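Hello again,

I reread your note about wanting to compare the complex against the isolated chains. To keep things tidy I'm splitting this into two emails, and this first one only covers the full assembly. Below are the input lines as submitted, including protein chains and any nucleic acid or small-molecule components. They are followed by the predicted structure of everything together. The single-chain runs will come separately.
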Amino acid sequence: MKIDFTHHQSAHCENGVVSNLMSYNGFKVSEPMVFGIGSGLLFCYIPFLMVNHAPAITYRAMPGFIFKRFAKRTGIKIKREKFTNKTSAQTRLDENLNRNNPVGLQVGVYGLVYFPDEYRFHFNAHNLVVYGKEGDNYLISDPVMENVTTLTTKQLEKVRFAKGAFAPKGHMYYPIAFPEELQLDKAIVKGIKHTCRDMLAPVPFVGAKGIRTVAKLIRKWPKKKGVKVANHYLGQVVRMQEEIGTGGGGFRYIYAAFLQESSKILKNERLSELSKEMTEIGDLWRDFALDASRIYKNRSAQDDAYNKVADQLLIIGDKEEAFFKKLKKAI
Amino acid sequence: MKTNEVPQDKSHLESVSREVYYAVDENGEYKKALSSGWDVKTIALENALEEIERRVQDAKTRVLENKTSPIEYYMELHKMDLTVLSSYVGMWQWRVKRHFKPSVFKKLSSKILQKYADVFEISMEELQQIKS
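Full-complex prediction:
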């Protein structure tokens, strides 16, 4: 069977799944709107955690949080199920497809055979939609892909039960109840306030302060860790910022798009100005990535090169702090 | 970033899909734009893959020198670390780490070996004997 589901490509998987499931249910909500209302934007350095043998930095909220917050703020109810048993996970999925209900799944990237090998890492917080089954093939709408694809029953089971950090445990979710009309204005204000609070948090690992902390660390890497490791670490910082699904600039452009759209809905001209400012901050992030890439491309590690990218980060940290203070006042 | 600045470099992904970016058009409006790739990202990815390749080769050498067991080699080959591997086989990390010792590895029961072989999707023989 095949559900009449429209695949729209998005920059980030979770926003994309939510936006696509919403539009299937008759509500047109853009990806940036989901991201903004769900307070997806963040900066967080996670001390002591190593991912791919390098320090962990995230530019977005925890997996699942965006949808959770979006649903709460717009009055949608989501049904979520996790499974210990692989057979019942499949049975529940098939039941939903038979009821003409496309569902969101959390999956591990390593087993996603439609990605090139180079992109298959043990990252378990990817999201996609299943919208049908033909023979042994499940019809897959992966929001970061241009086109829809398929996975066999066995392949799908493998990615649903990937192991490691954020193991999906068959996690399946779909909206079950909607408000009569989607009230975006209040939800937008709540979403923005939350993001401002996160980005201005008085914690050295989070938000603008987190950016400064990472800048400090980068300065120390070449002396403390040696050239090779320092270059590897720096490469990972850039990868987490610019990997598939971040929409560039560590999600800053998606957020700027959200502010622009919100400015029209709330009829608040100030948000449109701030959107432009966020775009400039996004550009600074990209400049940072470009300069950082020059360092690890040349495999050199002059202290001044590391200091230079650290200085860039400090400027970004200051700009983001000033930005979110203004944004807080603007709504 | 303006729509015409969206990078269109070569990447490993371009044969499969392009990526969505949000960029500003000439009227200052945000629009979705597609990118085939960006060199900055490709270099970062290639460096990460080289690092994995180095780890795989290093593990292989140590297996052949009888300094570690093939489990560590296959772990690296599958881009795993101790956390990921131990969660796949359902054993404590210290136990998996202990299985890296060639002397311990030799004495492992076929039940335990089968667990590792299943995770790596290889036969028991392949697990016990890596190609030099």
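For quick reference: The mean pLDDT of chain A is 94.

B.
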